[in-house]
Write a structure and sequence with these properties.
The protein is of the alpha/beta class and about 325 residues long. The chain folds into two domains: about 170 residues, Response regulator (Rossmann fold); about 150 residues, 3-Layer(aba) Sandwich (Rossmann fold), CATH 3.40.50. Strand 7, helix 6 and strand 8 form a beta-alpha-beta unit. The longest helix is centred in the middle third of the chain and has 18 residues.
Length: about 325
């Protein structure tokens, strides 16, 4: 079987059997966890989800079984995956950090509880009727992509004051995030006098093509939009950034730890923990409609000082003071 023909499943469930063959009647509730990352890049967030579950009283494999489905950017697999989870009647579908997965789950079922973690407005996305009263089978965490994108761009400009031309990397298959970026970022850029160019990538080859384009167009910096696929490819992004001489701004700490210049965004570890806790509340019998959508309150600004030196960027003291962490 080719790699593109299956979904990696880790975390206590067999990885060699087809999904349908794995269905086993059991009194232990099954949670379908669906995420756009690769399994290799997901140990920390999976652990955070399990921590949230344990805080609610559920520990694998004692009283819950979690099926981890890592899409590795293959959002086209979502319809068949969600149909399978619904057919087998899992207890909860958890989609932290993946708007496409949340939307696909909502389209697949109106009865199985869905716990999401999304950056867009969950009301506009059709996931809930309101954040205070979800009034349906879905609830979760919202982490404000639009507002965060504008702030990240402002911090990038403060870090590279001479930057004028900014390339924005989006994954076109993640339509909700890509559309939000194309709507929100140009407006924020105009207020700062920046020129924006959008570049698409949804596989490793297209990432390299995007860097080629950025260099050809004399881009001053790369703004990487939030996407689980990009987080999974963070080492490739950092390597190309160094090779092509294009400093990059990201949404997650992980990407900066891999060599990106800076990040500003939600504390994803806390978001995954919150989704895990809400999943546990559902397993206890609480209805999604009775759990208001949580609003992220933990944000972090991280700078990689070593990367800054590589690019000859002197980080102003005023910017360093704003940072939650400066990685040496």
């Amino acid at each position: 079987m080719r790699r593109r023909d299956f979904i990696a499943l880790v975390g206590g469930a067999a990885v060699t059997l087809p999904l349908a063959a794995r269905a086993q009647p059991s009194a232990t509730p099954v949670v379908g966890f669906v995420n756009g990352r690769s399994p290799e890049a997901s140990a920390a967030v999976a652990a955070a989800f399990r921590k949230g579950l344990s805080e609610a009283g559920y520990v694998e494999p004692r009283n819950v079984r979690v099926e981890y489905h890592w899409l590795d950017g293959r959002y086209d697999l979502l319809p068949s995956l969600m149909a399978d989870l619904v057919r087998r009647g899992v207890a909860v579908i958890a989609t932290p950090g993946s708007s496409p997965a949340a939307i696909a789950a909502k389209a697949a079922t109106e009865t199985i509880p869905i716990i999401f973690g999304v950056g867009g407005d969950p009301v506009k996305m059709g996931l809930v009727t309101s954040v205070a009263r979800p009034d349906g089978n879905a609830t979760g965490v919202n982490f404000f992509l639009g507002d965060i994108a504008a702030k990240r761009l402002e911090l990038l400009h403060g870090l590279i004051t001479k930057a004028v031309r900014i390339a924005v990397l989006v994954n076109p298959t993640n339509t909700s995030t890509a559309e939000a970026a194309r709507r929100d970022i140009p407006e924020a850029a105009r207020t700062m006098g920046l020129q924006i160019e959008f570049l698409n990538a949804n596989n490793s080859h297209e990432i390299e093509v995007a860097f080629d384009t950025a260099v050809r167009d004399r881009t001053d910096a790369l703004f990487v939009t939030p996407d689980a696929f990009f987080t999974s490819r963070r080492v490739q992004l950092a390597t190309f950034a160094a090779h092509y001489g294009v400093p990059s701004a990201h949404a997650t700490r992980e990407e900066v730890e891999a060599g990106g210049l800076m990040s500003y965004g939600t504390d994803l570890i806390d978001t995954y923990r919150q989704v895990g806790d809400y999943t546990g509340q559902i397993l206890k019998g609480v209805k999604p409609a009775d759990l208001p959508v949580l609003q992220s309150t933990k944000f972090e600004f991280v700078i990689n000082q070593q990367t800054a030196r590589l690019f000859g960027i002197e980080v102003p003291n005023s910017v360093q003071l704003l940072a939650d962490e400066v990685i040496e």
